[in-house]
Every structure is written in C-alpha cells, then in structure tokens.
Amino acid sequence: MTRKNLYGNNGPARLISRCRKVPVRAALFFVLLMPLLVGIIAACDGDGDDEAKSLTIYSGRSESLVGPIIEQFSNATGIDVSVKYASTSQMAATLAEEGDNTPADVFFAQDPGGLGAIEDMLQIIPRDTLDKAPAWARSAEGRWVGISGRARVVVYSTDNISPDDIPTDMWGFTDPAWKGRIGWPPTNASFQTMVTAMRQLWGDERTRLWLEGIQANEPKVYEKNTPTVAAAGAGEIDVGFVNHYYLYRFLAEEGEDFAARNHHLTAGGPGSLIMVAGAGILSASDNSENAAKFLDFLLSPVAQQYFAGQTYEYPLVEGVNVNRLLTPLSEINNPSVRMGDLADLKGTQEMLRSVGILP
Asked: Which secondary-structure segment (H or E) carries 192?
C-alpha cells in the first residue's frame, strides 16, 4: 500500500530543500531493519481477518520528519494510510471545526499544546500502549501519548558570540544589550508550548513582561525553527529560540563548518524545557484498531531508533540508544512541568496577540 499526502506535492509543512536528505538515509535504515519491523507488526496484527485496512492521520509534524516512518508502517501492515500535513496549530483548529465529522483517525502533533487543545475529542488509549512511554510524557487522562522528546535550546552564531556570552536563563535576553540580535518563530507550535511552560513556571504577569522585553529588543521573526537556525548559521542573528534537533540536520547536510551550535541554559527554566511530540486517537475514528496499531508501532524499538538516529530526537522507550551527538537528558536542567499541564494553547495565543506578537 502507498502512503497518500492529502495536500499533494506542495504541502505547507515541507521543510526547505536542504533538509530533504532525511528520507534517503531513512530508506537505507529501514532496508537493514525491515525483518525486525515486519516481526513487530505481525505480532500485533491479530488473526488477519478482512477488516478495513485504512487509516487517516492528521499530522502536525512535517512530512520530511515523519513521512518515512509512516510509509514503513503502511508497507509493513498493508494498511492504506492517508496523511494530511499542516502545522500543529492548524491541524488542531481543523479538528475543532470538523468535530465529530472529522475523517481523522489519529492526530500526530508536534507538541502537547496542540493535543491538549482538542483533548476532549480524543479517546482513552489502551493502558499497555500508554505504559510504553514514561508517565511524565503522556496525558494524565490517558488520551494521548508522547512519541519522541525534544529539548528547547538557544541556537547561537559561532561567528558572532561564544557560549560564555549567553545568559543563564531566558529572562537575560530582555536586557537591551540584545537589541536586534535575537531571532524567534512566534507562530511555531513548540515556541508557543515553551511560552505555555513559562506561564506555568513564572505566572502570566512575568511571562507578559518577558514577551514585552523581547519585543522591545526588536527580534527578527521567522516562520519556524529551520529558518531560525539557518539565520544563526549565516550570522544574521546572534541567538534564536528553537528545538534542539534542527541544528543536527544542518550539520549532517553542511558539515562541521556550519557556523551555529546549540546551548542549553544552565539555570534551566522554560528555555530548557523537554517537550514531546505525541499522538492520540480520535473518538470519532472508524479505524480505532488500526490507529492503536500505529501508536504501538511508533513506540516500538524500531520506530524509536528511527527518531533517535534519523531525526535526532530523544527516544522515550527504554533500551533505545540516544544519538551520540545529543546532550544526555540527565545533563539538561529540565524544569518540572508535566506535559499535560501545557495544554492551554488558546490562552498562550491570546497573550501573544495581546502583546502584538501574533496578529
């Protein structure tokens, strides 16, 4: 069976061309591991009856990141998978609008905020699936489960500054000395999740003051993480607020001469948040069994190793090796915030609009 992209060849979530080597490397990866993959799927595929072999996924994750793993699931199971790609916030808004009439079976989101925004539309996930991920990385109500981990970092231009120049926490960037030197992607779902964590940790008043302080420093605005990292590498900005793994894709493409690196804030706080990409099954789904198989597959060792090895994310399943390039999670000063507490995406967007950061 083939994987269908409901947006065609010009889906809005495609990354820039320099990042398109990921599927090529992933193809080789799966050629080597296909026997194990087929065994895993066969073990949970039941008695092979004639039930409908279809699945519709609404993906807030970009096709270049998750397309290969979705395609391998389809090939291994024979399930005909259709995928609709957009940003996580766009997908959440679409699901809210469609309601019980949505054709989606699975929502695969970039962050907990998007999942939390439509959590009442998700069904309870089977306990044996939930238990494959750690308790901190899933919904308290069991309606979605984390698939992979991403760390918030400050990406910096190695041509312009050194790590010693970077503040110990996010508040330090409100200093007027950073005027014109910062880049950020305020429409990005992960950025908005970080602001949600900031509201949890600092409260709304201090968070608003931080946003106003960064605005006063005239940050350069980018659509998402990839161009923010590219701008740091080109020296257009000194620092940017992004997820960790985008840098490693540039390094894989351009080599060690790429003039940007990641920095983990030593004081922790919202700028050091470890968040998850996650997925849930729609209550309106007519293909809940296939959806559950997909979630089990994403949490299998094979898929988890794909995220670790091919997209430079942190695996959530025990026994899967973290990419050697990444800072171990135990060395990151991750604030104590449950993923389920990051669901107030709407409140964060309202705050961003009130400050004039979003239209």
From this structure: helix 189-202
Which residue matches tokens 């923010």?
A: 228
- Render pLDDT for 88-111 as a digit per residue (tens, 0 to 9): 989 999 999 999 999 999 999 998
Q: Whole-model pTM?
A: 0.81
Given a cut of 70, is residue 158 above it in pLDDT? yes
Q: Percent of the chain beyond pLDDT 70?
A: 86
Count CA within 13 A, CB hemisphere, residue 310. 23
| 222: exposed, middle or buried (Cβ count in 10 Å: 0-12, 13-18, 19+) | buried
CA distance 119 to 97: 14
Q: Using alpha carbons only, give the angle 169, 172, 178 rounded to the nearest 5 degrees.
A: 130
3-state secondary structure of 260: strand
What's the rounded Cα separation, in Å, for the pair 307 and 292? Answer: 19
Look at residue 10 in the predicted model and tell me its pLDDT. Answer: 40
Distance CA 271, CA 326 (A): 17
